[in-house]
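Lecture notes, continued. The same structure-token format from the folding unit now serves as the input rather than the output. Read the line below as a description of shape only.
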């Protein structure tokens, strides 16, 4: 039976198209796919039809918005089924549009401005879960010289590669790349301590900083004071390690750092995450582009 309204057998098609809440949400949606209505009784066929629109004008954007609509319908269903909380379909559509716009914004440099990453990219790399049940925390920093702002992204995932928490911080400053990367690791440690995680692995794509932390070098530099903080804070955890990953295995934290550069406030997510953040996390884990259809029902 339908977990939301106890109407009929709860198939995927019923959940996403024919449940009362789903039907109302689609009626309010700015993207309709009227030509595919006859295929809604078979989700796989319907989704194949959606993917066939990739080549048309704004096709990719319409598909991305559709995924967000599906995601909001799924979350509304879970709130009703497990928390007995009603979700206004208008709010679901509004949230889907907001997350879609955030995704579009995160994929481009607005106003012709170049938002630079603070480390050299590498063409190879893959995110691998931390061993022994550790929480793995990836960090990254990005900066904009044009507006004098720095963004820091911190992403925490469990052994299954699922997001458990994410933080984004912005500041009106730019400094040496190594200092910002070290600051992002320090912030990740602060967040982990606040979350009461005792066994953690911190991962960055800045090899120089990771090497300095692990070797505890005594060289004098402006980043030393941050490294000293990190050296002290590591004793707050029962197990704490630091590792390097190439940029291609750190895309989730990288995208978050770029996204936050222009925000006016710090942001924290837990339990529910931006759709593009989910997608980026799965891309890190798989080391390749993920299938959007696998994201629709992820929790």
């Amino acid at each position: 039976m339908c977990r939301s309204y106890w109407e009929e057998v709860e198939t995927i098609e019923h959940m996403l198209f024919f449940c009362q809440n789903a039907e109302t949400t689609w009626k309010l949606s700015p993207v309709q796919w009227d030509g595919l209505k006859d295929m809604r009784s078979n989700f796989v066929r319907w989704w194949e039809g959606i993917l066939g629109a990739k080549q048309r004008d704004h096709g990719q954007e319409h598909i991305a918005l559709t995924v967000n609509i599906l995601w909001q319908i799924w979350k509304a269903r879970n709130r009703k089924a497990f928390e007995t909380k009603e979700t206004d379909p208008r709010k679901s559509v509004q949230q889907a549009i907001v997350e879609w716009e955030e995704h579009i914004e995160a994929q481009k440099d607005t106003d012709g401005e170049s938002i630079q990453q603070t480390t050299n990219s590498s063409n190879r790399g893959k995110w691998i879960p931390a061993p022994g049940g550790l929480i793995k925390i990836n960090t990254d920093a990005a900066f904009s010289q044009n507006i004098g702002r720095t963004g820091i992204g911190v992403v925490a995932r469990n052994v299954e590669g699922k997001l458990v928490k994410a933080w984004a911080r912005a500041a009106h400053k730019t400094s040496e790349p190594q200092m910002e990367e070290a600051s992002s690791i320090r912030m990740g440690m602060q967040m982990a301590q606040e979350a009461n995680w005792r066994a953690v692995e911190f991962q960055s794509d800045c090899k120089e900083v990771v090497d300095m932390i692990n070797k505890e070098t005594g060289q004098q530099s402006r980043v030393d004071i941050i490294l000293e903080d990190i050296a002290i804070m590591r004793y707050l955890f029962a197990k704490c390690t630091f590792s390097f990953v190439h940029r291609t295995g750190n895309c989730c934290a990288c995208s978050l750092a770029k996204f936050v550069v222009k925000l006016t406030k710090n942001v924290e997510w837990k339990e529910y995450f931006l759709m593009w953040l989910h997608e980026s996390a799965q891309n890190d884990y798989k080391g390749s582009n993920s299938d959007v259809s696998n994201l629709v029902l992820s929790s």
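Point for the exam: The two ends are 21 Å apart (CA to CA).
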